[in-house]
């Protein structure tokens, strides 16, 4: 039996989608808004997002629209 490892960004995407579904944030809100909800974990997530060329002003919807996270 093999376990599939979920990419960390997929986990973030699912968490952010949950925030949108619960109406805590909106898809057109800027990514920086989720920083308020992630507290001490935010610096790590911010670095990940910057590595994928997101800016903190990009809308959350752009993050949710990514279909595949490549580490190349």
From TrEMBL:
Q: Which Pfam families match?
A: DUF4327 (PF14217)
Q: In which domain of life is the source organism classified?
A: Bacteria
* Protein name from the UniProt record: DUF4327 family protein
